Amino acid sequence: MTRIIGGTAGGRRLEVPSGRETRPTSDRVREAIFSVLESRDVLDGVAVLDAYAGSGALGLEAASRGAASVVCVESHRPTARLIERNAKSLGLPVDVVAATVADFAGRETRRFGLILADPPYPMTEPVLAADLASLAGVAEPGALLVVERSSRSPEPTWPAGVEVEVGRRYGETTVWLAWAAYVNEVLG
Known about the structure:
Elements: E1 2-3, E2 13-14, H1 27-39, E3 47-51, H2 57-64, E4 69-73, H3 77-90, E5 94-97, H4 101-107, E6 112-117, H5 125-136, E7 139-150, E8 162-170, E9 173-180, H6 183-187
Parallel strand pairs: 3-4, 3-6, 4-5, 6-7
Antiparallel strand pairs: 1-2, 7-9, 8-9
Helix pairs in contact: 4-5
């Protein structure tokens, strides 16, 4: 069972995709991520991008906990519709875009202060590196990037202008925190 952990929709259940297409972030890892975000006062009033949204659990959690706006990007159209249903049933204002991360970032004009990226674990490192470079292009200066990967995967290859703070391991998952310190000046 996947549920929203905190905020206005805390305790409410989420519908999750069936099959092996997605791997929702566990409650334990999600709670750890959001504890860090709240302790740093990153969430309140921030524009959030949930890349590779899957069930939308990360983006919906952010919306429940006070984000100003949330965009969930999911390339699998039926799963994108599932996120829309979850958002509607929870009463959370979340925009859902059915597109690849690269396509979304290539045409998006909005900028985000928090980018949550939970790519499929089988995604290759070169593809992830290219997507992270695309995501850096939609980051506000000073934005926080949170990247979730398998603990068996190497550290992601970060684009220029992104400063890695830490990688924290939670069993089979490692969560990387990085700051887009001056990325928009570098990528222009």
